[in-house]
Amino acid sequence: MVRDPFASESTPSAAEICAALDDPDCREIIQNLEEPMTASELTKRCEIPQSTLYRKLELLTEATLLEESTEIRQDGHHASKYSIAFDEISLGLDENQSLSVQIERPARTADERLADLWSEVRKET
Question: Where exactly are the structural domains of the chain?
Fold first, then answer.
Protein backbone atom coordinates (compact mmCIF):
# COMPACT_ATOMS: atom_id res chain seq x y z
CA MET A 1 0.00 0.00 0.00
CA VAL A 2 1.43 3.37 -0.99
CA ARG A 3 0.91 6.11 1.56
CA ASP A 4 1.13 9.80 0.87
CA PRO A 5 1.41 12.00 3.97
CA PHE A 6 0.69 15.07 1.85
CA ALA A 7 -2.76 13.73 1.02
CA SER A 8 -3.44 12.52 4.55
CA GLU A 9 -6.65 13.85 6.03
CA SER A 10 -5.47 13.51 9.63
CA THR A 11 -2.34 14.45 11.50
CA PRO A 12 -0.87 11.73 13.71
CA SER A 13 -0.88 12.30 17.45
CA ALA A 14 2.08 13.78 19.28
CA ALA A 15 2.54 10.38 20.95
CA GLU A 16 2.84 8.63 17.55
CA ILE A 17 5.37 11.18 16.30
CA CYS A 18 7.41 11.03 19.52
CA ALA A 19 7.36 7.21 19.53
CA ALA A 20 8.75 7.11 16.00
CA LEU A 21 11.42 9.72 16.71
CA ASP A 22 12.37 8.09 20.03
CA ASP A 23 13.34 4.89 18.22
CA PRO A 24 17.10 4.78 17.38
CA ASP A 25 16.51 2.66 14.24
CA CYS A 26 13.90 5.14 12.98
CA ARG A 27 16.30 8.01 13.51
CA GLU A 28 19.02 6.10 11.65
CA ILE A 29 16.65 5.54 8.71
CA ILE A 30 15.80 9.26 8.57
CA GLN A 31 19.49 10.22 8.77
CA ASN A 32 20.34 7.93 5.83
CA LEU A 33 17.47 8.95 3.52
CA GLU A 34 19.28 11.60 1.51
CA GLU A 35 17.25 10.56 -1.55
CA PRO A 36 14.31 8.18 -2.11
CA MET A 37 15.43 4.62 -1.39
CA THR A 38 14.00 1.10 -1.37
CA ALA A 39 13.97 -1.08 1.75
CA SER A 40 16.83 -3.16 0.28
CA GLU A 41 18.96 -0.05 -0.22
CA LEU A 42 18.17 1.12 3.30
CA THR A 43 19.06 -2.28 4.78
CA LYS A 44 22.53 -2.05 3.26
CA ARG A 45 23.05 1.59 4.23
CA CYS A 46 21.68 1.36 7.79
CA GLU A 47 22.82 -2.16 8.68
CA ILE A 48 19.40 -2.85 10.19
CA PRO A 49 18.02 -6.39 9.68
CA GLN A 50 15.41 -6.37 6.93
CA SER A 51 12.56 -7.66 9.13
CA THR A 52 13.26 -4.91 11.67
CA LEU A 53 13.61 -2.32 8.92
CA TYR A 54 10.13 -3.08 7.53
CA ARG A 55 8.59 -2.59 11.01
CA LYS A 56 10.41 0.73 11.39
CA LEU A 57 9.36 1.89 7.92
CA GLU A 58 5.76 1.05 8.86
CA LEU A 59 6.09 3.07 12.08
CA LEU A 60 7.54 6.06 10.21
CA THR A 61 4.95 5.99 7.40
CA GLU A 62 2.07 5.64 9.88
CA ALA A 63 3.44 8.71 11.69
CA THR A 64 3.51 10.46 8.25
CA LEU A 65 7.24 11.12 8.60
CA LEU A 66 8.03 9.14 5.43
CA GLU A 67 6.31 9.09 2.07
CA GLU A 68 5.97 5.71 0.39
CA SER A 69 5.77 5.58 -3.41
CA THR A 70 6.05 2.81 -5.99
CA GLU A 71 9.04 2.44 -8.29
CA ILE A 72 7.80 0.87 -11.54
CA ARG A 73 10.35 -1.57 -12.95
CA GLN A 74 10.59 -3.08 -16.44
CA ASP A 75 10.78 -6.64 -15.06
CA GLY A 76 7.42 -6.24 -13.29
CA HIS A 77 8.92 -6.51 -9.79
CA HIS A 78 7.87 -3.09 -8.53
CA ALA A 79 9.33 -1.77 -5.28
CA SER A 80 8.31 0.73 -2.66
CA LYS A 81 10.58 3.74 -2.29
CA TYR A 82 10.67 5.85 0.83
CA SER A 83 11.51 9.52 1.23
CA ILE A 84 11.39 12.02 4.07
CA ALA A 85 8.03 13.79 4.23
CA PHE A 86 8.76 16.65 6.61
CA ASP A 87 10.98 19.68 6.95
CA GLU A 88 10.22 20.51 10.56
CA ILE A 89 8.24 19.10 13.48
CA SER A 90 7.04 21.32 16.32
CA LEU A 91 5.61 20.16 19.62
CA GLY A 92 3.66 22.51 21.83
CA LEU A 93 1.05 22.70 24.55
CA ASP A 94 -2.51 23.49 23.58
CA GLU A 95 -5.05 25.32 25.75
CA ASN A 96 -5.89 22.03 27.57
CA GLN A 97 -2.22 21.47 28.49
CA SER A 98 -2.06 18.57 26.02
CA LEU A 99 0.81 18.10 23.60
CA SER A 100 0.05 19.23 20.08
CA VAL A 101 2.11 18.56 16.99
CA GLN A 102 2.63 20.53 13.81
CA ILE A 103 4.45 19.08 10.82
CA GLU A 104 5.85 21.36 8.15
CA ARG A 105 5.97 19.55 4.81
CA PRO A 106 8.28 20.32 1.89
CA ALA A 107 6.76 22.34 -0.94
CA ARG A 108 5.15 20.25 -3.68
CA THR A 109 6.17 20.79 -7.29
CA ALA A 110 3.57 21.59 -9.95
CA ASP A 111 3.90 18.03 -11.28
CA GLU A 112 3.25 16.56 -7.84
CA ARG A 113 0.23 18.78 -7.31
CA LEU A 114 -1.16 17.79 -10.73
CA ALA A 115 -0.62 14.09 -9.93
CA ASP A 116 -2.49 14.61 -6.65
CA LEU A 117 -5.35 16.28 -8.51
CA TRP A 118 -5.65 13.40 -10.99
CA SER A 119 -5.57 10.89 -8.13
CA GLU A 120 -8.50 12.68 -6.53
CA VAL A 121 -10.41 12.76 -9.84
CA ARG A 122 -9.88 9.00 -10.25
CA LYS A 123 -11.27 8.41 -6.74
CA GLU A 124 -14.41 10.36 -7.63
CA THR A 125 -15.13 8.44 -10.85
Answer: 14-124
